[in-house]
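Researcher: We plan to redesign the surface later, but first we want a full-length starting point. Tokens attached.
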């Protein structure tokens, strides 16, 4: 049970806490872990690849993807002393949609997610990503407060 665990990370404190819980679980269960980051899509303001703004947008996207990959690699290094199999996945899109699709397509058995993330506003219990993922996932979801 829970041999494949997906942990979505936005770099927030709560998502890092979700990673610690995942590592502790994965060690006990001998589970494989995937660290996932979604670069949120830019608003469809400039779509053409031919004009100057299109090129600027393209380089912003590349930079954001690179940044996301580096962040995940740092998290991998931070848990390299643990005896667990880890890989990473970075993609651009709507965070909740991408997390749900990845979990579904690759048959993850558990998603461990923070209750809040970078956009935390005091007074709300859950962020929009954790809210949507917990309501629509086809596997169990562990929400870390
Ligand atoms: N872009 C992302 N990529 C990967 N995981 C994410 C991303 N955004 C959020 N998450 C995951 O979802 C958890 C909850 O974050 P969420 O975005 O729902 O809360 P929030 O930022 O406080 O609120 P909101 O984004 O609705 O303003 C995070 O701790 C993280 O585990
Ligand atoms: Mg957020």
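Model: Full-length starting sequence:
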């Amino acid at each position: 049970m829970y041999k494949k665990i997906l942990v979505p990370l936005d770099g927030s404190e709560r998502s890092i806490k979700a990673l610690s819980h995942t590592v502790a679980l994965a060690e006990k269960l001998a589970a494989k872990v995937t660290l996932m980051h979604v670069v949120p899509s830019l608003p469809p303001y400039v779509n053409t690849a031919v004009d100057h703004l299109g090129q600027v947008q393209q380089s912003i996207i590349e930079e954001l993807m690179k940044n996301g990959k580096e962040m995940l690699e740092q998290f991998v290094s931070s848990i390299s002393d643990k005896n667990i199999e880890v890989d990473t996945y970075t993609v651009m899109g709507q965070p909740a949609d991408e997390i749900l699709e990845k979990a579904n397509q690759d048959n993850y058995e558990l998603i461990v997610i923070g209750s809040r993330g970078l956009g935390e506003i005091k007074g709300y219990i859950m962020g929009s990503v954790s809210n949507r993922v917990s309501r629509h996932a086809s596997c169990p979801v562990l929400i870390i407060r």
